[in-house]
Protein 1
Amino acid sequence: VIRPASSDDLDAIAPLAARLVREHHHYDPQRFFLPERVEEGYRWWLGRELANPQATLLVAEEDGVVVGYTYGRLEERDWNALLDECGALHDVYVDEKARRRGIARALVMAMCDALKKRGAPRIVLHTASPNAAAQALFSSLGFRSTMIELTRELP
Ligand SMILES: CC(C)(COP(=O)(O)OP(=O)(O)OC[C@H]1O[C@@H](n2cnc3c(N)ncnc32)[C@H](O)[C@@H]1OP(=O)(O)O)[C@@H](O)C(=O)NCCC(=O)NCCS
């Protein structure tokens, strides 16, 4: 079942969000920060976003257990990025034990629908360069590659 999240889901979502953050930090510790008390931090942040009318937080539930979530938001025109108002898919995470059963696909499609209903003409998202699974997922759903981010440390 894919459904909108409520504040009762935050205890289940926060550990998944923390894993998403840790995985990114592991890819490149300098580029992706790992805040202290990451679980608590993202519980606070996503709880705040639940009250944001521009944001959407959805969960995937199996037999009453949350096994994945996605978080997205309508974003305003960004002149620096040459990016007009759009829907941004910020997070999608599926518990390891529930993978390769189409749950992420269902979450992403539900997020696309939700953001379209709010007026988004397109969805834009970022995926870490080494994250082949995410790239395969998004490409299978019709996302095209539009931007490459580069990072260099300054001595
Ligand atoms: C990426 C992720 C969300 C996929 O979740 P999932 O529920 O297993 O994905 P689905 O079962 O819906 O897969 C849909 C399609 O995506 C692709 N895909 C998913 N996982 C893949 C993998 N490990 N390797 C290659 N392709 C993969 C496949 O095309 C798959 O279709 P198929 O199973 O018919 O071949 C999950 O692995 C995850 O949570 N990873 C960690 C968090 C993450 O990277 N999030 C994305 C951040 S941008």
Note: The chain has a mean pLDDT of 97.
Protein 2
Amino acid sequence: LEQGGMTAPEFRAHLESAEKSPEKIASAVLRLPKTTLNYRPAPDKWSILEILAHLADTEIVYGYRLRQIIADNDPTLAPIDQDAWARNLGYSEVEVAEMIALYSLNRRANLRLLKRLDVEDLEKSGFHPEHNRRVTLAELVERIAAHGASHLQQIERLKQHITTQ
Ligand code: NI
């Protein structure tokens, strides 16, 4: 994170892009046939369905982390292994509509909490054992704002890959 932290306009821009993600993801996967949803480009790569489950679950993780940092005193964040979650939590068996609904509602609730904050609050942090350092709310906000967009690109690449086969 650059010196001086996040400015108010940057914060607003991040919240705005974070707000648009669920709808963009929803329209990208609307009416996709099952074969497309389940298609894996390689045995160790996620299908679109698994990406949707990852988006829904990650929003729960973001939500817990930001609640810890906002509300708790000196919290420690729990690291997750996202491939282990995909393997062990049945990501390939989920329902598209349920994942979109979970992602949308948790994202909305997370943004509601973030919108109450002033930019100074974004310097609050929690200890991340995996990185062995403190992670600020500002960093978390940047991640939340970028997460949907990067997986949207991944979904579009997968759709492209399937149609050009
Ligand atoms: Ni991700």
Note: The pocket of nickel (II) ion is lined by residues 54, 58, 147, 151 (CB under 6 Å).
